[in-house]
Specification:
Shape of chain A: elongated
Number of domains of chain A: 2
Distance between the termini of chain B: 63 Å
Helix content of chain B: 40-55%
Number of strands of chain A: 4
Distance between the termini of chain A: 33 Å
Number of helices of chain A: 7
CATH class of the largest domain in chain A: Alpha Beta
CATH superfamily of the largest domain in chain A: Glutaredoxin
Radius of gyration of chain B: 27 Å
Oligomer: heterodimer
CATH superfamily of the largest domain in chain B: NADH-ubiquinone oxidoreductase 51kDa subunit
Number of helices of chain B: 24
Number of strands of chain B: 19
Chain lengths: 155, 593
């Protein structure tokens, strides 16, 4: 493991110990720093805290927020709330998969440009269907509109 | 130009998604540039960000207040700001064509606002403004003039019931917790709002976070807790941010920390970010999550009020429940009990969404007929289609059909028709929605959110989903409806926690009221609402087709052929029924049947 990475983990460890934070908070901070939960980071942290790595793994796989794989440069999040569903979220997801050429079962494109994810509800039901690209919210989407909106991110 | 001018911009998540922060910025710039020419503009104009005012369908909403008069503008975009500043703010001529119409007032006039009263009026990031509307006077009154027992008795008398879904009396819950001998007790605010189609709690925290904190202080005093937690979804960044700001401000003012309001009572609050698990809305699962474990529920009893966080007596209250507490302390239990229906007191905040004209956040007295909510406040069905059903209570609730449209909306009313209050999401469905598909949608949700601890929920929801999937794909078998019903009842009766117990509700209620739709899917392989693609045939109407070729381009299996500028044709033997051509056609020439 690189020295810088170790330093980051040590900072997280110190902060979490001082605050009495649990392993969920520690993992959230690791993910914030590295973009996803790296196996080597967990192993390092498990040794430092003397908590079995399996407990970290148990937590990571339980909560939807954690990612065990690196994610793409642009994160496309499609809302799958009830309203977005009845207003056509499924067709939007299909269109995005086709548009960014995502194969069955894949979440991230080969060139690491896009990751497609879904979220249970962002609570912006009045502008459903909603797609969020990185931080930007696109409301009232359709398969055609989202394809247009994704264009600038492809460059 | 002598009177004070205030411009309020709605900056809830809905508002921001519609571009409210850009509108805000545009006002700031316009004020500056107009201020060069007219010094009084800059001096006398206050730009103000406020929380959600409910009517999200008309975002971005902007209020311009001059003296005692307020004008509300709807659908405002950044490029419209220049004219508002020039015509209205400087020249005093309101732009009538951009103002809200009568329906805006109908929307608000039919509501009773306790929780939402200050949302959209005060700046959620300023404690001074909350103090200005009487904030923290209830906490002061409770701590300095009332004993903990008196606070609990007031809650009992008010008839307040938990707004998270189950509707357990709040005062009673507090008294159970207070009765325990313990060296430490905890109060937790459950802001892990996970129901799809629900955003009440988020809006309350975004629009008036101090009300929730004040409720927690009073609750903590009543049960004798010195530590509190707010467990909130990490997917709500704006709410989390405003919560942190509110906590800092409250600490600065001495409303949190040591010796509150000059008494010997100490109390402080920590924020815990949920990591995205629906089941953590369940009390024991939420506690496990705060303890840093996988959020899996355990069998009850012991209830958290006796044995909760770190094994200590713990009270978990929903955001809306807590926000109700300060007004009850200030105005009295009798006042609160005078609102609502016989067994459900007070008001309920509802996220009204779906195929309805006025989507948004509303607050109604308990017992308000469903019809009034949908047709008066909601303004009826979008696009003048026919009402089919209203889905309440999220994935744990059911669908209520036309025949029960007069139903009073309270805990008992909704339960009597096989649905539930849940946290208060209400999704209106019209004739173009397929009830089998809706049922499958909710099962997909509960199946993937099931924690897997108990067998009935883990395997039962999976089997229910499999059966529903085959029905929507045209492979339904005779006897499937009965199988669904038996299985649904088994899962409901034998699951460990609320998630499993209520997961079959969407299936049971849709079969009860829309059995004919299931039968059409199974026996005739037809989807009456034309939603389940696998049961549809796509074709092109020759008289409507202009031969633009868009559908052929969209088709991934080359099932569409035709010459340019001549009607195209779909080869049904090649078609995979994906619906791409239907989406691509701009002339409504692609039909499905």
């Amino acid at each position: 493991m690189e020295k810088t990475q170790e330093a980051v983990l040590e900072t997280i460890y110190q902060k979490c110990t001082a605050n009495g934070d649990n392993i969920i908070t520690a993992l959230q901070q690791m993910q914030n720093e590295f973009g996803y939960v790296q196996e080597e980071a967990v192993n390092w942290y498990a040794e430092r805290t003397n908590i079995p790595a399996s407990r970290f793994y148990g937590v990571v796989t339980f909560y939807a927020q954690f990612h065990l794989q690196p994610r793409g440069k642009n994160i496309i999040t499609v809302c799958q709330g009830t309203v977005c569903h009845v207003k056509g979220a499924t067709r939007i997801i299909e269109k995005i998969r086709e548009d960014i050429k995502l194969k069955e079962g894949q979440k991230t494109t080969k060139d690491m440009k896009f990751t497609l994810e879904t979220v249970n509800c962002v609570g912006a039901c009045s502008i459903a269907p909603v797609v969020i690209v990185n931080e930007k919210v696109f409301g009232k989407q359709s398969p055609t509109k989202i394809a247009q909106n994704l264009k600038p991110y492809k460059e | 130009m002598n009177s004070e001018i205030t411009v309020n911009v709605c900056l809830g998540t809905g508002g921001i998604a519609a571009g409210a922060d850009m509108v805000m910025e545009a006002f700031r710039q316009e004020f500056e540039s107009a201020g060069v020419k007219n010094a009084s503009v800059q001096e006398h104009c206050k730009l103000h960000k406020v929380g959600c005012r409910g009517f999200c369908a008309r975002d971005v909403l902007v209020d311009v207040t001059k003296g005692d008069n307020t004008w509300t503008y709807q659908y405002i975009q950044p490029e419209m700001v220049k004219r508002i500043v020039k015509d209205h703010v400087v020249d005093d001529k309101p732009i009538t064509e951009w103002l809200v119409g009568d329906d805006y007032h109908t929307f608000h006039d039919n509501q009773t606002k306790i929780i939402l009263a200050d949302l959209g009026k005060i700046d959620p990031e300023s404690i001074e403004e909350y103090l200005g509307v009487g904030g923290y006077t209830a906490a002061k009154k409770a701590l300095t003039e009332m004993s903990p027992v008196e606070v609990i008795e007031t809650m009992k008398k008010s008839g307040l019931r938990g707004r998270g879904g189950a509707g357990f009396p709040t005062g009673l819950k507090w008294s159970f917790c207070a009765a325990n001998q313990a060296d430490e007790r905890y109060i937790i605010c459950n802001a892990d709002e996970g129901d799809p189609g629900a955003f009440m709690d988020r809006s309350v925290i975004e629009g008036n976070p101090h009300a929730v904190l004040e409720g927690m202080i009073i609750g903590a005093y009543a049960i004798g807790a010195t530590h509190g937690y707010v467990y909130i979804r990490a997917e709500y960044p704006l709410a989390v941010n405003r919560l942190y700001i509110a906590l800092d401000h409250a600490r600065e003012k001495g409303f949190l920390g040591k010796k509150l309001f000059g008494t010997s009572f100490d109390f402080d609050i920590k924020v815990k970010l949920g990591a995205g698990a629906f089941v953590c809305g369940e009390e024991t699962a939420l506690i496990a999550s705060i303890e840093g474990e996988r959020g899996m529920p355990r069998a009850k009893p012991p209830f958290p009020a006796n044995k909760g966080l770190w094994g200590k007596p713990t009270i978990i209250n929903n955001v809306e429940t807590l926000a109700n507490i300060p007004p009850i302390i200030n105005k009295g239990a009798e006042w609160f009990a005078s609102i609502g229906s016989e067994k459900s007191k007070g008001t309920k905040v509802i996220a009204l969404t779906g195929k309805i004209r006025n989507t948004g956040l509303i607050e109604i007295p308990m017992g308000t007929p469903l019809k009034d909510i949908i047709f008066n406040i909601g303004g009826g069905i979008e696009g003048d289609k026919l009402f089919k059903a209203v889905q309440t209570g999220g994935p744990s609730g059911g669908c209520i059909p036309q025949q029960h449209i007069d139903l009073p909306v309270d805990y008992e009313g909704l339960k009597s028709v096989g649905s539930m209050m849940g946290s208060g999401g209400m999704v209106v469905l019209d004739e173009t929605d397929c009830m089998v598909n809706i049922s499958k949608f909710f099962l997909e949700f509960t199946q993937s959110e099931s924690c897997g601890k108990c067998v009935p929920c883990r395997i039962g929801t999976k089997r229910l989903l499999e059966i529903l999937t085959r029905i929507t794909e045209g492979n339904g078998k005779k006897g499937d409806i009965e199988l669904l019903q038996t299985l649904a009842e088994d899962v409901r009766d034998s699951s460990l926690c609320g998630l499993g117990m209520s997961a079959p509700n969407p299936v049971i209620s849709t079969i009860k009221y829309f059995r004919h739709e299931y039968e059409a899917h199974i026996n005739h392989k037809k989807c009456p609402a034309k939603v389940c693609n696998k049961l549809l045939t796509f074709f092109i109407r020759e008289d409507m087709c202009v031969g633009c070729g868009m559908c052929a381009k969209a088709c991934s299996v080359s099932a569409i052929t035709g010459e340019k500028k001549k009607p195209h044709h779909i080869d049904s033997s090649v078609c995979i029924k994906c619906g791409s051509c239907f989406d691509a056609c701009k002339f409504s020439a692609v039909l499905k049947e």
